[in-house]
Design a protein that fits this description.
It is found in: Cytoplasm. Its main location: cytoplasm. This is tRNA(Ile)-lysidine synthase. Belongs to the tRNA(Ile)-lysidine synthase family. One of its GO terms (biological process) is tRNA modification. About 40% of the residues lie in helices and about 20% in strands. The chain has about 400 residues and is of the alpha+beta class. Among the domains are: about 200 residues, 3-Layer(aba) Sandwich (Rossmann fold); about 80 residues, no CATH class. The strands form 4 sheets. It has a 6-stranded mixed beta sheet with strand order 3-2-1-4-6-5, sandwiched between helices. A 5-stranded antiparallel beta sheet has the order 7-8-11-10-9. A 4-stranded antiparallel beta sheet has the order 12-15-16-17, with no helix packed on it. A hairpin with a 2-residue loop joins strand 10 and strand 11. Helix 5 crosses helix 8 and helix 5 packs across helix 9.
């Protein structure tokens, strides 16, 4: 059986009548990302970017290898180095977030609106198994999206239906060498364990290609349901300065599954998270919507309305204001050396004597972004919106995230 037409997938990645002037490609030096760069470069003007997290001593050499590959082919390339705190806890997820943040900033700074990632059908199958283990619902089992918006950029996975072996065959035919990341064989990581489990399922006919087809079927069903939920949210739920507000009675009237899906999406959006909360924890909120703390968010109730806001204790630590991104916010204003973005917190809110005159309650303001120079409060865009700084959710409109693309 012949493999997929990789050039056809590359051409189909973008509308031929509205293709971006330049496609950014995230390249680690591994087979999937290198093949993505090689194939897209046949059809589009591309620029490559590599993130060095500093987590492995070999990473700098691998990034230099990508630079050499791009230099030999006249492809613009830049290496980004993570200078924040080392990812901790769920290392792969934290590293992924760091990559998205760095690459998003790189793309915006160069006027690049679209960035391609090298995920394959194998990644899709592994993701399916991992989410199955977390007891995900339909929206989770529908797999990774072909396109999604984050960090002010439209991200693409043009080869999500192609097996990794096909991309490696392309590289071999072109004489292009790739590197193997040792973390891809480290069983401490859930994805590596999922990969090993998938290899053992071939005996019963379960393959990466087969699971990719299953996720495609589920994604089609998910899209229909998402459109219905979008229409409901457009009539019943509003965004307010990064919070989501819905009438408790309207939410209670939803069928439990629709309520679960809406709350899952809302918590992800407010937290700025790639994934929703654990199924068991979410089920408790679905059964009895009301005041709670979950997934880095707070749910409060007042005058018949439920408000989902960011939990101040879960928000990110301070970061340089020049980056323009903090936690789940994009900020714009007169940045200067030494300024930082961080949570307003109780200390900052105490310096704004008229905050009660605004529309946002105290929990929302505590987690809202503020501009600091040491312990001097420079600006609080949500608590004191008349200043020179503006803050908008980095992931765009909540309602738009309900539509699966």
């Amino acid at each position: 059986m012949s493999g997929p037409d990789l050039d056809a997938l590359a051409r189909a990645a973008f509308d031929p009548d509205a293709a971006p002037a330049c496609v950014g490609v995230a390249v680690s030096g591994g087979s999937d990302s290198l093949a993505t760069l090689s194939l897209l470069a046949r059809h589009y003007r591309v620029a490559a970017v590599t993130v060095d997290h500093g987590l492995r001593p070999e990473a700098a050499q691998e990034a230099a290898g990508v630079a050499a590959y791009c230099g030999a082919r006249g492809i613009p390339h830049e290496i980004l180095r993570w200078e924040g705190p080392a990812p901790a806890g769920n290392l792969m997820d934290q590293a992924r977030r760091a990559r998205l943040s760095l690459i998003g900033g790189w793309a915006r700074g160069r006027g690049i609106t679209d960035v391609a990632l090298g995920h394959t059908a194998d990644d899709q199958a592994e993701t399916f198994l991992m989410r199955l283990g977390r007891r995900a619902g339909l929206e989770g089992l529908a797999g990774m999206r072909r396109r999604f918006v984050a960090e002010g950029v439209l991200w693409h996975r043009p080869f999500l239906t192609a097996p990794r072996a096909a991309l490696r065959a392309h590289l071999t035919a072109e004489g292009i060498a790739w590197v193997e990341d040792p973390s891809n064989s480290d069983p401490r990581f859930a994805r590596v364990r999922a990969r090993a489990a998938l290899a053992g399922l071939g005996a019963v006919g379960i393959t990466a290609e087969g699971l990719a087809e299953v996720t495609a079927h589920l994604a089609a069903a998910e899209a229909l349901i998402a459109e219905d939920l979008y229409r409901w949210a457009a009539q019943n739920l509003r965004e307010e300065a990064g919070d989501l507000v819905v009438a408790g009675a309207a939410l209670a009237a939803l069928a439990p599954e629709r309520r679960r899906r809406l709350l899952n999406a809302a918590l992800r959006w407010v937290a700025g998270a790639a994934y929703g909360p654990r199924a068991a924890a979410l089920a408790r909120i679905v059964a009895a919507p009301g005041p709670a703390t979950l997934h880095g968010c707070r749910i409060t109730a007042a005058r018949g309305l439920l408000r989902i806001t960011r939990e101040a204790a879960a928000s990110a630590p301070r970061a340089p204001a020049a980056a323009g991104l903090w936690d789940r916010w994009r900020l714009a204003g007169p940045a200067a050396p030494g300024l930082e973005i961080g949570p307003l917190g109780a200390a900052g809110l105490a310096r704004i004597t008229d905050w009660r005159a605004g529309p946002l309650p105290r929990p929302s303001l505590l987690a809202s972004p503020a501009i600091w120079a040491g312990e001097t409060l420079i600006a609080a865009p949500l608590a004191r919106p008349e200043g020179d700084w503006r803050a908008t959710p980095a992931c765009g409109s909540f309602h738009a995230t309900l539509i699966r693309r």
